[in-house]
TrEMBL record:
GO terms for molecular function: hydrolase activity, acting on carbon-nitrogen (but not peptide) bonds. Pfam families: Amidohydro_1. The keyword Hydrolase applies. Keywords: Hydrolase. Residues 62-403 form the Amidohydrolase-related domain. It comes from Hungatella effluvii. Gene3D superfamilies: Metal-dependent hydrolases (3.20.20.140), Urease, subunit C, domain 1 (2.30.40.10). This is Cytosine/adenosine deaminase-related metal-dependent hydrolase.
Amino acid sequence: MGVTLFKNCKFLFAGADPKSVSTSHSVAVEDDRILFLGTEKEYYEQHPEKSLSTVIDCTDKLVMPGLVDGHNHLCNTLMNISRAFPFDYSHISDHMLTTIHDPYGWLTPESLYDITMTSAINALKHGTTTVENSTILPDTAYEAMDTSGIRGILAPQMASSFRLDSDPLNWKQALEKTKSCIEHYHNPKRRMSVAVHIHDLWDCMEKLMDGALELAEQYDTRFVTHFWEFQNAAERADEMWRDDGGAFSHYMKKGLITSRSVLFHGSMLREPEIEAIAGTGASIIHNPDINGTNCGNCAYVPYMLKKGINVGLGSDYGSLDAMSAMKLMLIVHNIMPRAERVLPYQAPFYAATMGSARAYGLDQEIGSIEPGKKADIITIDLKKAPHLLPLCTSLLEASPELLYFLFTRNCAGTTTSETMVDGKFLRRDGEFLDLDEEKFVKKTFDWAERCMTDLMEKHRFGEHYARIIHPDFMKDGDITWDVLN
Ligand SMILES: [Zn+2]
């Protein structure tokens, strides 16, 4: 591929440390890795033998590492249309069947492929170069992620209390499917990792959890799960495990929370639980948008950071994006009426880059612009970004950390000029090179129409695209085993 030079960057945010911000520096990329960071003159002095195949003039551009969306469901873009139907939002099982399982159960490989592609396009357009994808039909999801060019963490969803029409695996088959995905797709040195993913703690038998933990250990991959996103779920779990000192204490004893665990949301966690998690080395992925719009809560991130937990950032939803999540993260912790408030200006930038990368053990490879790391780089054309005023280079001398504030408070909606993943350009001059954005977006709007029409038809007859196998919040001993096959 030769050497690409991002030349004379007006702003280069190499990482989340204010000392890493520079102006008039250049970044060289050779094949899939970052070769050099410094002035253009230094580049020619250090690499006189290497000719340049591509030069991007960044005199008016902001250059930064691609964002790492630590939690998303790329096929879940249709979720919110189910809010049209009556359900008890505070009751977790009723809520999940209507808003999540139905649109999931409606999917086909064809629609899931198109919707996943559209979500990947949305992510790439808004600066994400790595995305965690908790998904059903993982072979199709892998195909779409691979074709889109994005770097991914594929997390095939496993649960036992319900079965989707679209992906009707029983719990043993779900474990087999995850194992097969790890064996076929897990290759963190390239563009894909596979994580072991149980959907949530109240819709999985303990046997499934145990099997999942074993798989993660056997293949040395991450173990990921939604963890305490809803008040109703936390309260019912506490009740269920009262004899064990409450749900959190039960799961800690079980070994569910370790350094290989990545917990999505953590929005119901209280101080003592946060302190316990800090001692394990587990990471939490903060999803401020879905916390606010779907759960009516907000993770206690300032306290998590104070206690040393690694916090990544996610969007949790195909039509949201990590750039907007950064802005929300900056804002919401100023508002939450808690003892610990306000984050350092660079905290959302860190969470959306190194924080998420570290959660998945990828921080040596991605998350910052450093020689030797993978070339996942984005540029923003400041001539087309009036919303990013008043960023100015003089602040490098006066207060470089203020640059993170100015960027983060206004970055929602920003699209990239260039997006490079693994040394390959996916976008140039604000356009995709190979991906047909209009085709996939139009197809997904059409799928949304069909899905809503079909869901209304189902609801008319009181039916669903999923069926309940056993009640949620059940201990294994209370489940009739024949229903599980
Ligand atoms: Zn989620």
